[in-house]
Amino acid sequence: MLTGGxxxxxxxxxxxxxxxxILGRDRLKSPDLxxxxxxxxxxxxxxxxxHERGVRIVANAGGLNPAxxxxxxxxxxxxxxxPVSVAHVEGDDLMPFAEGALTANAYxxxxxxxxxxxxxxxxxxxxxxxxxxxxxxAAAWWFDWAPDDHDRLAGAVVAGHVLECGTQATxxxxxxxxxxxxxxxxxxxxxxxxxxxxxxxxxxGTGGVVSVGTVTAQLLxxxxxxxxxxxxxxARLDTxxxxxxxxxxxxxxxxxxxxxxxxxxxxxxxxxGWRNEVVFVLTGLDIEEKAALVRAQLAEALxxxxxxxxxxARTDHEDAETEETASALLRLxxxxxxxxxxxxxxxxxxxxxxxxxxxxxxxxxxPGPAQPYGVFTSSSVPATAVPHVAxxxxxxxxxxxxxPTASGxxxxxxxxxAGSGAEPAGPGTGGAGxxxxxxxxxxxxxGTLIGARSGDKGGDANIGVWVERDDAWEWLRTTLTxxxxxxxxxxxxxxxxxxxxxxxxxxxxxxxxxxxxxGVASAHRFDPQAxxxxxxxxxxxxxxxxxxxxxxxxxxxxxxAP
Length: 562
What we know:
Oligomer: single chain
Shape: globular
Number of strands: 26
Number of helices: 12
Strand content: 25-35%
Structural class: alpha+beta
Strand order of the largest sheet: 1-2-5-3-18-19
Largest sheet: 6 strands, mixed
Helix content: 10-25%
């Protein structure tokens, strides 16, 4: 990013929910830890270059110890002979918060970053700010926006959300990746205008692609409804308009901002207990019977464990040409408050069945010791109760005044409010073999027509889906209801699913409550961050009107799509 072209501010998002748990465990070992050490290593290469080019650096790598990271950067700069001024933002750490909490951090906005930059800081490090605040805080400094410039701030927040996951905006993890060369996607950048509009692009000569599709995918990532709630502003995602301005240049305009909620989201991590797992390999014939045998043999040993989850993945193929493709995987995951009950005694006991169980018995790896797992929950506190402080380069501690808020607006993580655009489950239209107005349909994977991007928010997951044409949008909007999604993804049938429509993006966004249990750190599912949930949906078959499908789609002898 520093060598590929012009840049004013370089931002870096280092904090995920799982990261906070990891940093919390680091802090238990030493109070001097708690920040992202990788950021400091990266500065060894980039700090001098950034200074030469006049590039400011803003990152939330401070984690649980932004003051400690700021001191470490000063020491690095002095050693390297680079004369940079360093500031940091703090106040998000609310520990001690509740019994058993390992970390508790309020999600601050960008106002503290703005204050530090106005004081002349070359490098600003923060604790837990929202991911998008790194960009909106820098933009507010550059253009000298006021706290009530809601539309401008909202536009910058949307740009920040597009940038926060790096190459996910330039072709990484993109549904239609086969249409582009995404082997080495370049990182995205945002050219932000004074009115808050922006152009998403990348440095010339870098790989990947910036298209309306890649930007749409990232806009839908890990969001819940049309209102994208933040501590500085509520950005209305349903007002954002995207356009392909040129090759690898996508404009974002029209974003409407509203006052932020009166409360701040608080992310809380805890050590939830201890876990372990064994993966049995079942090869050849009688897969179901082999799985039943090993489950029966371990039933008594597992009776004292708090939870034991079995999953049989039928990765085997009939008449397979290799042993691996003839094999299925039976996964056992155990959890308990005590490490002893899920430690080597249990996993070794499972492996000791090797000569007394199903034919071909073996496991994917040797048994290991019990490992701690984490739990992530979110809460909220009044925004006025959090001491947002900018610590300036000269050491002055400058309180950041609370942003004017709107009463009655929820904090992120709260229940979906009335009037938010949420839709209850309901039947879709179009049946097998016949679409709207009697048009013929073809039964094909849903991903033949739609793109999808999914991710986690604590124990919940979201799936954003979109199409590229207006006629396809009308079909998607009327067909893919929450009820239809639950039928396509049976694992969601007993969970609360909410659908939101985003017509400007030709997109739907589904929130699936509780599918990830206690969050990514608990490893509740095979895919604990729901990264592939959208791709599972795209792989499910539906009856889609034939006129909406690609014209090159091959036909079977019967005249229908395979």
